[in-house]
Amino acid sequence: MRVVELEGVIFGGGVAGLWLLDELRRRGVSALLVERDALGSGQTICAQGILHSGLKYTLQGMVTQAAREARRMPELWREALDGRGEVDLSGVGVRSEHCYLWRTNDLSSRLGMFGAHIGLKVTPRTVEGDERPEVFRGCPGPVARVAEPVIDTGELLRVLAERNRERIVRADEVEFETTSAGNVRSVRLRAGDQEIGIRCGKVILAAGGGNEALREACGLASRAMQRRPLQMVMVRGDLPECYGHCVDGAKTRVTITSARDCAGRVVWQLGGQVAELGVNCSAREAMAFAREELKAVLAGVNFENAEWGSYRIDRAEEKMRLGARPDSVSVLEEGNVLTVWPTKLVLAPMLAKKVGE
């Protein structure tokens, strides 16, 4: 068995692990990323790809910590997507340069629109009449445009991986040699009949939902993580492209992003409350609920010949009191093991900086 010495080993090939690998290598740190399955096969590839400005976190009429954290990100991502940042993401496709914000025609929804104008570097701009995309022309209330780009997450993973391809390995089995809980002396990786041993300074767990089992293997409590399940509904058919959030009070009633399948057909992916409330439903019930919600918030769109589908995915996060949502990135340091969660795709650069420092 070959044995190597490294300053850091990262587990997890989603956006958090890949961006962190890039950050450490730019700082001159000898690091390796280990992935068990295809890169980004968990949360990242299922993400809607919206680079949030913090807008959706102000719906209660105040600037939350989540909004403060997210509002720093658009400029950083814009530089990266233009090829001007520390990380060159000019090869990543941008599906839309903007998202739209609209409301249903009730009082609580109007209050939510008010909250969206507070404290942002990226300010929503109201669009009127013919300036609105066709999909929003039947909306009874105001429609606003905000500079929240929507990116292709598959291309994001590909570009990040290509920057450091020679420092990424796949392993079928991982074994940690520990001296005590959270103190890893070495790591053994196996892939087929190949085996490698690593003596490392730091072990960084960035595997999303996989962090639970990895922590146990390092002798750490798995209870440090919480899961928030979603049932995401997809709609395919003769649909216009749509990117935006329908606000209902202090909640995002539905978030819609669009992609195209191999035949060029538009596919909508539905997040927000539609995905959260569908968790305890069957697939059939979740799709029926989503259909009724879309009819209510986009009355002018015809779904008669649309095809419907759904899938389930968990959002993995640091465990919070009473299951609350984390406001920022999470880094737990125990011995020489760091467990990290970016919380939101847009915060991956912030997580990498925090760990790198």
Give a verbal description of the structure.
Helix 1 crosses helix 10. This protein has helices at residues 15-26, 43-46, 65-70, 73-81, 107-115, 153-163, 211-217, 273-277, 283-297, 348-356, and strands at 2-11, 31-35, 94-96, 99-103, 125-127, 143-146, 150-151, 168-170, 173-180, 183-191, 194-205, 225-237, 244-248, 251-260, 266-271, 307-318, 330-334, 337-341. The chain is elongated and about 65 Å long. The chain has 357 residues and is an alpha/beta fold. The two termini are 33 Å apart. The relative contact order is 0.19. The longest helix is centred in the C-terminal third of the chain and has 15 residues, at 283-297. The model has no long low-confidence stretch (mean pLDDT 90). The chain contains 10 helices and 18 strands. The protein has a domain at 2-45 and 157-226 and 319-356: FAD/NAD(P)-binding domain. Strand 1, helix 1 and strand 2 form a beta-alpha-beta unit. The strands form 3 sheets. Strands 1, 2, 8, 9, 10, 11, 17 and 18 form an 8-stranded mixed sheet that branches.
